[in-house]
Amino acid sequence: MTADTVVGTGLVRHGGRKFSDYLIFNTDHKVIGIQYLVLAFVFFLFGGALAGLIRAQLATPDAQLLTGSSYNVTLTLHGTVMIFLWIIPAFVGAANYVVPLMIGANDMAFPRLNAVSFWLLVPGGLLMLVSFAVGGAESGWTAYPPLSVTTPIGQTLWALALQFIGFSSIFGAINFLVTIFNLRAPGMGLTQMPLLAWAVAATSIIILLGTPVLSGALLMLILQRWLGAQFFTPAGGGNPLLWQNLFWFYSHPAVYIMILPGFGIISEVLPIFARKPIFGYKLIAFSSMAIAVFGFLVWAHHMFTSGMDPFLRVPFMVTSMIIAVPTGVKIFSWLATIWAGKLRFTTSMMFGLAFISMFVIGGLSGIFLASVPIDIHVQDTYFVVAHLHYVLFGGSVMSIFAGLYLWFPKITGRMLDERLGRLHFWLTFMGFNLTFFPQHLAGLQGMPRRVYTYPPELWALNLLSSIGAFLMAIAVLPFLYNALRSLVAGKVAGPNPWRAFGLEWTVSSPPPVHNFPTPPVVEGDPYGYGERPLPGTTGVAAPAPGMAGGE
Amino acid sequence: MKRVDPNKEALQPHHYPGSRTYLLVFAGLAILTLIEVGVAYITSDIRVPILIILSALKALLVILFFMHLRYDSRWYAFIFFGPLVLVIPLIWISLIR
Amino acid sequence: MSDTTPHLTMQQSAPSATGLDSAKLGMWLFLATEVMLFSAMIAGFLDMRGRSPADAHHVLNIPVTAVNTFVLICSSLTVALSVAAIEQGDQKRLRNFLLLTLLFGGTFLSVQIYEYNVLIGSGELTPWNSLFGAGFFAVTGLHGFHVFIGLIWCVLTIIWTSQGKFSAQNFMRVEIFGLYWHFVDVVWIILFVLIYLV
After folding, report:
1. Which residues contact B94 (CB under 8 A, 6 or more apart)?
2. Nearest by CB to C15, which of B5, B22, B68?
3. Which of A44, A57, A200, B11 could form a disulfide with A86 if both were Cys (CB 3.0 to 4.6 A apart)?
4. Nearest alpha carbon to residue B58 among C34, C77, C105, C189
């Protein structure tokens, strides 16, 4: 058995060389990474289509495309799909592919559990789709009772789907933590790990400790819907705030599940294309851990208007503002990383830079919202919608694309076309801002979220949003064309097209089935740009020939 | 970084307690359970803190001895007890009115 | 861990950078998840308890449950003794103690099902007729489900034992099953007090 042979021929295999290797229970982390990424991207397109439906309805003040009920179903499905079936699995997929390579491991710690995690996501996704075919959930992704206990059967299936996705997440988190702890190559101490590994470890801790709380809350929701247990309905003596507390105990940390891996990806992208070592390695690593811990102590800022004890508002406002500090530490570290660097404006770098600026806007509106007086004023308006899309699209999705453009050559062995990439970037960036910036203003003028009509005075802002959404939809086309074209006709990438440090760039593209034909050698700091030669070359790490400018 | 082959004995700590310790712990658990049931019939409010302390004691006995936490790596103790910090706000949620 | 498909388990013989066994580390991480799951359920239970009459738990049968608690503690002892047995390389004693565990665990679950039958059958306590009932069945039901999973796991461990997979040098799977079983016991120790006695 050589290092580059697919093992097994039935439904259980290890390694991906043929198309069919990607359709079965495959225990190779690289295959599983691609399975996650492709599945997540399909759901991204689906969730995007739903967003298109929403924006079409809102393009005019009283359109008849959707009714109140079908509009609710659409926005619930859009939110749930984008969060649980696109952003989170896309990060899991990317991390699954690159983290074992980055730390010099041959696979994840538990290859079979890894495959189980992926194959739990599939029934979860299918159940989610089925739930909307049988009379869907109308309560938004937050599923507040009493609405979420009176809606049709689809809401029960929706909750079951989330249970499947939750199990998938938890098993994945255990796998990542053990992998990162135990499978590091000789010589790679915790502070020689690439920052993506730190970010994934912090994310996994949040998943490990947060997701089971959602599982418990969903279990109670399911029991209420099936057996008539009165947990959450005041009419039966229950407590609607119990759901909100448990839900946000998970879901506020969950927003860090959706952004920390992005932070990790950006920490890889910037040094490569600024040709400088990362600034503040330890601060970035430890601030991820700080976010993972403090993220659990801020949840009630989502409930300032929910009838909670007013006395509790101030402590939660304070903790919510404190958590901006570790995030700020990262932002400044990244700015210092690109400061005076020799910047290469590749598509990956463009998405990386867009990430920083867009995430700062979303972060700042987040601090507005953490402040009790402002939050009470703009709660449940489009200001919140704008904020969350700046962090989730401007932040998370931009970083996913930055990572895809960075690692596509490693995953497929072929380069993406940079011109098409730039077209994709600019259309996305302009469409995104056109869509969501006006929503800040609409929100401040009092436009409530999750309502399918609005007064005619808000028409201009909404029309801008809808045009922007249309642009974003168009933007996907050059990316899809680029990716498919590259698979057959792209320039051959070679092992290290970006002249990057990091163990994943020392093996062929795509890597051999068992990753490292010879045991990897760790040379200390993973970001030695401009300080020491790349492995296998002489002279200080020079930029790739295709990247404009000299060192 | 020290590297150890898990197939070698080094990873299988053989200093776990023997059957005698397990039997003693079991006896302790049984007695504490008896005391708990007795305390439950006290009508004074003092029974609640007593019962909670007794059950925590029992849980600790199982965790430290049966689950070997007393003899194993500190990492496992950190992983298991660390989340209890988060359990405090979670339980507190349910007690506020 | 032994397996007939070496390619799938290649990592299990890989060296560990921390010196901790991967499977055991994974199990403890899983238990951390379980701590949070049961905490959430207990939070739900305590909330419902606080909204119920103070004597809501008087319909529960404390003597029977106290005996049942004792039975579960016995099962924990037999699991601990089974680990001690295989530590000495004694496969026969390992199997016997695991069989005893199965017996005690099965008894516990049977008594719980009997308790459910009485409570729901008589209509004294159901998930739908009171908040206390809702909390009670949610938490004890989830725990019972964990016991059920533990019983299946125990049967598997007995099968592995009879296939001669364990020895004084190689018993990590027994230990990991033990961790799970003891944890389920710990949860019951807490639940017994919170639900039945307080």
Report:
1. A242, C42, C43, C44, C45, C46, C47, C50
2. B5
3. A44
4. C189
State phi, psi for A13 to the nearest 5 degrees: -135, 165
Judged by a CB distance cut-off of 8 A, whether residue C149 touches chain B is no
Q: Residue A47: name the closest of A86, A91, A14, A96 by CA.
A: A86
Distance from CA of B22 to the nearest CA of C (A): 7
Whether A14 and C133 lie within 8 Å, measured CB to CB: no
Q: State how far the alpha carbon of A365 is from the alpha carbons of A382, A387, A494, in Å.
A: 12, 6, 43
Domain-by-domain residue ranges, chain C?
Answer: 20-197
CB A452 within 8 A of CB A66: yes
B1 touches A: beta carbon within 8 Å: yes
Residue A378 makes CB contacts below 8 A (sequence gap 6+) with: A368, A369, A384, A443, A444
Distance (Å, rounded) from C-alpha A57 to C-alpha A61? 8
The answer to whether position A373 is within a domain reads: yes
Residue A353 domain boundaries: 30-505
The CATH classification number of C20-197 equals 1.20.120.80
Nearest alpha-carbon partner for A399 in A337, A327, A326, A350: A350
Q: ipTM surpassing 0.90, yes or no?
A: yes
The Cα A396–Cα C94 span in angstroms is: 51
- pLDDT tens per residue, chain C (198 residues)? 333 333 333 334 456 888 899 999 999 999 999 999 999 999 999 999 999 998 899 999 999 999 999 999 999 999 999 999 999 999 999 999 999 999 999 999 999 999 999 999 999 999 999 999 999 999 999 999 999 999 999 999 999 999 999 999 999 999 999 999 999 999 999 999 999 998
| Among C137, C155, C56, C50, residue whose Cα is nearest residue C99 | C155
Distance CA B24, CA A384 (A): 59
The residues near A244 (Cβ < 8 Å, ≥ 6 apart) are A144, A302, A303, A306
**CB-side neighbour CA atoms (13 Å) of A213:** 31
Classify residue A309 as left (phi > 0), alpha (psi -120 to 50) or beta.
Answer: beta
- CB pairs < 8 Å spanning A and B: 21
In chain B, domain spans: 9-72
Determine which helix (DSSP H) or strand (DSSP E) holds A26, and give its type and residue range: strand A25-26
pLDDT of residue B2: 41
Alpha-carbon distance of C24 to A4, in angstroms, equals 30
Counting the structural domains of chain A, the total is: 1
Which of B9, B22, B67 is facing C179, going by the closest CB pair? B67
**What residues of chain A score a pLDDT lower than 50?**
1, 546, 548-551
Instruction: Look at the alpha carbons of A513, A519, A521, A526 in this order and tell me if their dihedral is positive or negative.
Output: positive
Query: Cβ–Cβ contacts within 10 Å for residue A315, how many?
Result: 13
Evaluate whether B65 touches B17 at the Cβ level (below 8 Å). Answer: yes
Token pair of A547, please? 């990247």
Give a yes or no: residue A534 inside a domain.
no
Taking an 8 Å cut-off on Cβ atoms, the answer to whether A106 and C14 are in contact is yes
- Identify which of C126, C139, C137, C127 has the alpha carbon closest to the alpha carbon of residue C41: C139
The single-letter code of the amino acid at A51 is A
Asked if residues C102 and C158 have their Cβ atoms less than 8 Å apart, the reply is yes
What type of residue sits at position A78? H
Q: In this structure, is residue A529 part of a structural domain?
A: no
Using a CB–CB cutoff of 8 Å, tell me whether A524 touches chain B.
Answer: no
Cross-chain Cβ contact A212/C17 below 8 Å: no
Give φ, ψ of B4 to 5 degrees. Answer: -130, 140
CB pair distance less than 8 Å for C73 and B94: no
With pLDDT > 90 as the criterion, what percentage of chain C qualifies?
87
**In CATH, what number is assigned to the domain containing residue A430?**
1.20.210.10
